[in-house]
Amino acid sequence: MMLVPTVQASDTLDIYVLDAEGGKAEIIRTPSGQAVLIDAGFPSANRRDIQRILAAAKEIGITSFDYLIVSHFDVDHAGNVPALAAEIPVKTFVDHGTLTPDPKMNPVNRRAAEAYFAFVQDKKRMIVKPGDTIPLRDVDVTVLTSDGKAIEAPPKGAGPGAGKTNPACPAEPREALMNDDNPGSVGELWKFGSFRMADFGDLLKWVENRLVCPTNNVGKLDLFMVNHHGVNLSNAPELVAALAPKAAIMNNGERKGNAVDTVTTLRNAASKPDVWQMHFSTGIPAELNPPENFSANLSAANDEAKMIKVSASKDGSFTITNMRNGFTKTYR
Question: What superfamily does domain 13-331 belong to in CATH?
Fold first, then answer.
């Protein structure tokens, strides 16, 4: 059972990265109490990820979600949306509109997309494009990527370095490659005072490249939600260099994601971000994992489904807490 401190209205933006075993589910609560869910994890017979989302929402004090952002339509992100929305109200669904035309798409992902489209057709829905904003009272949220496209100029609130040439870019743009619905991922820039965070779902390297090359259209961040569970189809060096985060959180599973290439990119970044993981990874050399205090779950055999919590202040400082052991680190 997850233990989450009950949160009242506060002066912090609070982000809860849930353990979806290599899927994705992330709850964001604004200082005024609005609630956003990004993705809803894997569907399963035991409703594992639905139960984890509902339990976390209850402990946080959330009784409905103002927005459910479906980053893309793969099963580990969108597959639970219809069943979850039957148990907790969702006011508005946000997504990128249509399924990416990949002739080799995994049929499980295609079925998840079709089920989501059937479900959402009579719901309040925002289909977003780069440059759109998601209206929240005390946080600015700008869509940077959607449906395989990237914003073409820095948005209001972009970080330092935005609008400048990115020296980390390769000589040529990356080739556009399909891979299920991943390149369609909705990616957002979250700005609360001086604090900036970006979340791009499972965005692929070629769309990442369009976003920050030849010009960095995002600027430096405080926090980066590592793309695509840390697999090597994503997290291009030019993206990480452009974002220059202080910390990064990876929603990997014990045996999913967290590729050697991604770890190397993050470790070699000039900003030297701390990397926090949902799981200790057994698929890479043990020494490439961060210290145990930076992993929310150490073993799938003894999985307590612990979360990582971020509390950000308007002055740009933020604290990350490992809910497994209470370890915290504050970034100024």
Answer: Ribonuclease Z/Hydroxyacylglutathione hydrolase-like (3.60.15.10)
65-69 vs 247-250, strand pairing mode: unpaired
> Is 0.85 surpassed by the pTM of this model?
yes
| Exposure on the CB side of residue 303, measured as CA atoms within 13 A | 16
CB contact at 8 A, 71 and 185: yes
User: Distance between CA 243 and CA 228 in Å, rounded?
Assistant: 16
Helices (H), 162-236: 205-212
How far apart CA 81 and CA 70 sit, in angstroms, is 8
* Cis preceding-peptide flag for 214 (omega within 30 of 0): yes
- Residue 185 CA to residue 34 CA, distance in Å, equals 23
Q: Tell me the DSSP string of 249-305.
A: EE---SSSS--HHHHHHHHHSTT--EEEEEE--SSS-GGGSPPGGGEEES-GGG---
What is the maximum alpha-carbon separation in the chain? Answer: 50
pLDDT digits (tens, 9 = 90+) for 56-75: 999 999 999 999 999 999 99
DSSP 8-state symbol, 138 = S
- Residue ranges of the chain with per-residue pLDDT less than 70: 1-9, 300
The whole-angstrom distance between residue 329's C-alpha and the CA centroid of its chain comes to: 20
How far is residue 16's CA from residue 242's CA, in Å, rounded to a whole number?
Answer: 25
